[in-house]
Each structure stands twice: as C-alpha cells, then as structure tokens.
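Protein in question passed on here:
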Amino acid sequence: MPKTKNKEKKEVPGQIQGISGKSSASAGRSYSPTDKSEISSERWDFDSILKVVPFIIYVFLPPLFKYEIEYVWSKISVAYISLAFAGIVLAYIALKSKKIYFNLPKTFIPVVLFLFLGTASAIWAYNPYKTQNLAVMIAPGVLAYITLQFFLFQRKEIKAIAFFSAISASIVSGYGFLQVLGVFPMPPDQYGNPNPITTFGLSNFAVEYLLTVFPIILAFAFVEKNIIMKVLFASSSTITFIYIVASKNRAGWVGLITFIIFFSLIYLAHITRRIPLSRISKYLSLGVLATCIFLFIFFTQTKFGDVMVARFKSFVEVGPGSSVSTRLLAWSGGLEMIKENPIIGVGGGNFEIYSWKYAPRLLDENTIFTNTRVDKAHNEFLQIFVDLGIVGFGIFISIIFIILKIYLDIFSKAREFRKEEEDLFFIATGLFLGIISLLASASFNFSLQWPGSVLMFWANLGLLELIHSYIFGQKPIELEINKRLVALLPGLGVFIASLGAPCIDGIPFCTKETGFSQFSCQVKRKVCRASIGFFAARNLMLAEIYYRIAQWQKRFRNFDISERYYLASLKHDNPAERTYYDLAYLYLGKFGGVLNQRTIDLLEQTIKYVPYFGKGVRELGNMYVQLGQIDKGIEYLLRSTDSNPANIPEAYALVANAYFMKGDYQKAIEYGQKALEEIENSPSWKYYKLPLPDRVFDVNSVKFMAYFAIGASYAEFKDYDMAEKYLELAKSIKPQDMRVLINLSTVYINKGEFDKAEEILNSFEPQDFREKGAKFFNLASLYAAKGDREKAFEYLKAASEVDPSLFDRAFRDKYLKNILKNEN
C-alpha cells in the first residue's frame, strides 16, 4: 500500500481509491491499508465512474445478445471492446496521477505459465489455428483478471458490477423461465426436446454463466443495507435460482448442488463463531427436516419433480444417445489421447481434431443419433490434460489450489471482523462460490470454453484476489512515473491487446507476386492468423455469418452467390475446414456433379487441416476412383478407416467396388465381405439392436455396394452360384439397378437359366448407350445359347452399332464365339 510521503505536496490519486476510498478532497490524510471502512466507502468520484463503466459493459452486454446469427464471437467482440475502453481509462488515470498501482495476485505466476504454455502449444499442435481460436475465446477473461489488478476496485465498484450482473441474470433467467411457464414458445434443442433457450442459445450455456453470477448477487442480497437495492439483489437471485432449477440442465444442477453444499457449510461454520452450535442445533434440525419433507413432496407429488427425477435418472442411464454414455465414451477417447501425448498434450484446442481419430465407434454412432458430434471432452479437467498434457494440467490444478488457499485465508481472517465488517467476507464468498460452482459444472461440460462463463470465471478470480489483498493489507506495487509515455504503457498495453492486429479486411490472400510485397503479405497473413483481440473475434463472427449465408444460398442452388459468400468466409476465418469441404461440394453441384480439379483441391485442403476427418478423406478417395485414379482412391479410402469409425463400412464397400473396377476380384470380394461384417459389428446394432440412421450412412446402400462387388467378382471367377446369391441380394435392395440386372442376366445365361435371363433383360429400358449396348449384347448371347442364330446376329449387330468394341468381345463369349466361328 503506497503512503503519502509529502502530505502538503502530493495528492492521493483517484487510482488509489481502490484501496483507500479517498477522493482528491481527502489528499494528505493518512490511512491504513486495512481500514475496511475506507474500502467500504460508498462515495463516488469521476475516476471511480470511469473505471467501473468498462466492466459494467463487460458483465452487462454479452449475456444479452440473442442467438440468431453468431452470438459466440459477437459476445466476445463486445468483451474486447469493453476492455479496450478500460485500457484508455487506465492510461488516463496513470497519466493524471503519474503513478501506476498493480496488485500482484497470488495466482499470477501459474496463470501466466498456463497462458504461455497454451499459446506455445500452437507450435506442436496439429492445427495451430484451433489453438488461436481458443485463445481468442479465453483472452478477454484473462485481460479482465489482469486489468482489475490495476484498477483496485473497492466495495461500491464491485457492487456496481454485481448490480448490472443482476440485471443481465434476471433478463436471461426471466426469459427462460417464461418459456418454461408457456408464455413464450420453448424451441427444441439439438436432440429435438423442448428446451428453455435464452439469449445464450442452449440452456446449459445460460446456466453455466448464471452459476458464476448467482452467488455474488446473493452475497449482495445479504450485505446490502439499502432496502431497495437489497430487494433488487434478492429478486434477481431468486429468479436466477428458479431458472437454474427449471432449465433441466444436469450439469447446471451439479453446479447448483455444489453451491448449496459449500454455501451451507461455510455459512454454518461462520455463524457458529458467534453463536454456539448447541443454541442453533434445534433450529438447524428443524430446517433440515423441513427441507427433506419439502423435497420428498416435490419429487414424488409434483409433475415437475417427476421430470427432474427422470432427468437425474437419465444422467446415469447407459445406451445410445444417453448423456452418461456419451460422456464416458468421450472421456475414454480423451484418455487414449493422453496415453500417446502425456507430457505436453496434443495442443490447445486440438481435442476436436484428434476426437475424429480416438472417438470409440459407439460414440461416433451414438452422437449421430442426436445429430451432433462430440468435439469436446465434456470435462474441462480432462480436456486441459489432453490439450496441454500433465504439465498444463498441473499448472491449472495449482491455480485451483491457490484459489482454495486464498478463500481459506479469508475465511480464517473473518473471525476477527466486526459485524459491520462482514461485507467483504460475504462478497469474497460469493466470488469463490461462483468459481467453485462453475468448476463443478465443468466436470460435465466445456464451461471454460464458452462466452459468459469463461468471461465471468476469470473476472471473479480477479476480484477475489483484490479482496484477499484488502483483507490482509497487501500493498500493491507502486511505480512513480515522471515520463508521460511510460505512464501510458499499461493502459496502451491493455488497449492494444484488446484490439489485436487490425485485420479489418480479414486474412489477406497473398497473390503469386514475388519480392517484398509477397513477403509483407505473408507476414501480415501470419500476424492476422495468430492474433487475438477484437479484430480476430470480429473476423470469426463475419466468417460465421458469411458461411451461413452461403449455406442458405446453396440450398436454393444460387451457386454463384453462395460461392462469393464461402470465399468471404474463408477470408475472415482462421481457417474453417468445413468451409473448404462445403465449397468443394458447391463446385460439384455447380458443375452438375462433374468432378474438377478445384473440387479435389478444396477437399485436399480440408483434410490438411483435419487429417482425421474420416468422411472427408473417404469422399476424396471416392472422387479419385471416379476420376480413374483407382490406386490413389483406394489409398484414401483405406486411410479414412483409421478414424471416424462409423465411416468404416461405407469405406470398405467403396474399396470393394474400386478393386472390382481395377480387376482385382479377390480383393473386391475380401473388402465386400469386410463391409458386411462391419455393419453387423456396429455397436448400436450388436448391443442395442438399433439400426443406424441414414445420416450415419444408408445401410442398404452400403450393403448394395458390397453385394454387387462380391457378386460381380464371383461372376468373373465363373462361380455363378455365389454370383447369383449376392447379385440377387443386391437386386432385392435396388430392383431397377442396371448394373445388377445386366450382370445377373449374364449369370443366368451362363447357368443355362435362359427364361430368367430373358425376363430380366426385357424388364428394363436402357438409359444410355452403355446400358443399351450391354443389354443388346446379352440378348445376343442369350439367343445364341438358345440356338436362335438370326436373333443373335440381329442383337449383336445392334450392340456393335452402339459400341463397336462389343463385336470383338463376342469372340470371348462362350455362346457367341461358336456361331461366329460357324459363320466364318
């Protein structure tokens, strides 16, 4: 704590009011760093208002954005703007007072190490841009944590932040609660179930945010003296509590139960310092009994209680689509990643990429049932371990232990407080419980990778550090500045970090020019890709908006407009592999399904960024087969089976057909059988007798490809009985497929079952010259086998007119070659 050395010449600057609470009018008066009456001062001056406004924006606006377009990055953008404003305010106050104050947090070193390791992990991450995207999400919270240590907020400023948090929480909770009551429609979530979707989108995102602000709002409901403010805080905490319960979000309930347990124990331990336990045991017993009776009646006699019980049961049910099964399978995939990357992990944000490879097949199939894909661990502790290894996990756990130590210190110190001094203790308890509740919820969700919850987690930690410093009289670092430029540095640092690289036109596309212009473009491109801050968040927001417009336009086959928006999305993204993938298929649709090099190049780009995207690799392999590059196509198709396991049966069926086209009939039979075995080995079918939905893959289509490849290959080996078996199975799935009908007619001709062959050949009209030539050729062979030379020559002539090569083929047909020899 700085002290005034020359009482007559030096003013106590507004900056120091975070500790002393003095205005310039009180300059020169001595003070004690532990004078809690000063910390609790309700007096406002211009500097205090300036300091608190950016953080009011920070806590008030992001939670209120509606979810129609891309609320994730728009929320983060607003947080960056508020912190850029805070940087300007910090520069102004430091310049005005010619001093810089900084409270050194207990968690500062591990937080810096954690950030450094997370940033450095881009070096060894498979896709460093995933790391950058995650950094853009987390950075505003950490910047808030650091900026708070410069501002040194006192009680009134923390109350102002809590007040606006209470308003935001009331709006978020109130809107969701009115949906539960039926005032507003309750839209379906990603599983198709009605869900109270608020300004955060899905209820779990809103609940995770509310878990961080509810305890601090409740704390001010306890400590506030003004009756109007007390009612406002109490009302907000009540509606927030009700929404967290009514939202039916199980991870949120875990956080809420954690809050209730910790709050009850802390409050009981606190009041027993002044009131013996023996005096309150009677009331405590009655309270526990009344609570148990209420809960029993609520859960057994009310409709909503039944719903809650059913939701709790589903938390432990095992089976396709169940919450616990999904998480257990995701966690098992995460553990496999840890086994192979135990020390420094796979790189920040790279769990998503590796999840394609390590996800168990049952998870891959189960999540498709719900039209989702688990690209996060749904357990922040496990995900941090996966991303940053045991080193990063150890650092993060050390932060949590320091938080616990900080609060235990505050709790121990609180026994020395007078009754009127308990405000800081309750405020600290609210901040601590917000952190702990979110961490409990994070054991079942990705709470530290979502706006709202991640923003408030770090802000709560920063405020808790400040209160700990006040209570223990920790002096902030004081730097007396004589040069204006030096005084501006902290504020400018926050301002620049909040804005990031000014990539207002997105990420530049470098042309093929050489020389300095090419070099400077490449440098700018790398800076833009690696930057965090407002411009990075803005670019990601625009990328998402352009992407969705492109998708919408493609749906209406406005290919040129769609292409323009896809390219705009790529220019602003960092990058999104899905945009490359969808753009490739746009070109495929634009050119009537005809493959071109642009389509191939875009799919190559996609798998470059997401190498374990099995479906994308499979599609690329299939395209190479269609282009006639069969060996390369087979290579990609087999590579696709290394990941995305629900993709395996279709990949094997495509490989079987590729080998048939190549003329390797033994391999075609082998992989056709593998495809059929993989369908039977589907965990969904094997364990639960649930057929895979079409959006995984069309099981009948895969079976058809496998049956045809096997049957046609057996026909080439002249094993006509096996050929008939599999081709008939293929025909049962697609009765009018020309390839099957023509090959099956060939089998029946060679088996001497001429009536069946003739029936098949007369059952369809050819659609193109190949089908027409094949039909006429088989009719020629059929009539030659039946001894009708006239008709045989008639159809052979017709076939040869369609495709001259068929005449030469006739000399290899066992029936036609005989009549041709006799003719000669």
Remarks:
- The chain has three domains: 14-28+46-490, 644-724, 735-824.
- Strands lie at 99-102, 477-480.
- Residues 1-34 have pLDDT under 50 and may be disordered.
- The longest helix spans residues 380-413.
